[in-house]
Specification:
Elements (H helix, E strand, L loop, with lengths): L1 H11 L5 H22 L1 H21 L6 H16 L3 H20 L20 H6 L11
Helix pairs in contact: 3-4
Length: 143
């Protein structure tokens, strides 16, 4: 507890620079995330919670007094509990979302805010349409 008191005193001390407090706080949070990533504390907690919830749902489903709608809702809840993902499972999907956003931004069709003048969209003349009207592309009458 002495460490926790010293830590809070350091963070709340108005004489310390903000950047020093921020670096210390970011280091502590980063260290906790690093330890959680390698030792998977949050995963085991989430797994244990899921197991308890599924066991409770299964014991309720064994009762004969439940109606059809209640059973359907409990089965839906059980599927939702099973499919729920943890924090570290979401990181790859967030990374793929980030790369998708970057590819969209960097695509040649994306609007970019540059100072380059843009060319107006010019539609090419349809050669067949002009020939059917009796004119060539250069507006010289066809004889």
């Amino acid at each position: 507890m002495d460490f926790l008191n010293k830590f809070t005193d350091y963070i709340l001390n108005s004489e310390k620079r903000f950047s020093a407090k921020f670096v210390l706080l970011a280091s502590v949070v980063g260290g906790l995330l690093f330890a959680d990533y390698f030792f998977r504390f949050s995963d085991s907690y989430i797994t244990n919670t899921k197991i308890k919830q599924i066991e409770q749902i299964e014991t309720i489903l064994l009762k004969d007094s439940l109606g059809v709608d209640a059973r359907k809702e409990l089965v839906r809840m059980e599927k939702a509990v099973i499919q729920r993902r943890g924090f570290w499972d979401l990181i790859p999907s967030l990374a793929s979302l980030t790369s998708l956003i970057q590819r969209t931004i960097n695509s040649p069709n994306a609007n970019t805010a540059t100072n380059k003048p843009t060319k107006p969209i010019v539609r090419e003349r349809d050669v067949w349409y002009h020939n059917l009207r009796g004119y060539s592309i250069n507006n010289i009458p066809i004889s």
